[in-house]
Structures are given as C-alpha cells and as structure tokens.
Amino acid sequence: MEKxxxxxxxxxEQQIAILGRLRERGFALVAFPLYASHVGVRRGECAALLAPxxxxxxxxxxxxxxxxxxxxxxxxxxxxxxxxxxKGSEVPxxxxxxxxxxxxxxxxxxxxLASV
Length: 116
Known about the structure:
Layout: H1 13-24, E1 28-30, E2 39-43, E3 46-52, E4 58-68, E5 71-72, E6 74-78, E7 81-86, E8 89-92, H2 95-114
Antiparallel strand pairs: 1-2, 2-3, 3-4, 4-5, 6-7, 7-8
C-alpha cells in the first residue's frame, strides 16, 4: 500500500525570506520527492527537511542527515561500526563525516533562529 503524499503548502512571505537567508548562508534548496510536503536544504554531503510552522516560521523535520547516492541516509550500527545507509548503499560514519553533520546541524539551527 502506497503512503499518501501531501502537497507542499504555500509558503508565507516570512518563510520565503527565511529560505533566502539560508541561501545567503550557503545552504542550497533541494527537493526530495519522497518528502514532497517539506523543503530540503543541503550543504556539502549534509541535508535536512524543513517543515512550515504555524505563524510563518520553519523548523527542522526529523534529524539532519548525510546524503548517500543523493538520498537521505540513516545512521545504523553494523557490527561494531556505524554507517549511513540508503537502501543498498552505505558510507562509513567517519569522525570527519560526523563532525561535518554536527557543524551542519549547528549552522542550520543558528540560521533558523536568526530568522525568527
């Protein structure tokens, strides 16, 4: 059974301004077809989904993630090592990748807070 996908609701002027500020800070706006009701943002190998907030803001939907083969990956434990997985593809969760993801999350949170 296929899950129903909700269309992206129309963005407010405030939300559009927030997206503009994110772009000014080096974030690229991207679309993730599986998450059509959210706005995707990306920088390097890292990305996040943003959801509209009542009142005009945006918030991170779920967790930030690493892209594997251009798709959102989840962190899993394989034996004694962590990897980021998307379907049959995976990449190791190296200290450098984890640091890049943490820096991305901090920069995104700071940019969203600055927009309020």
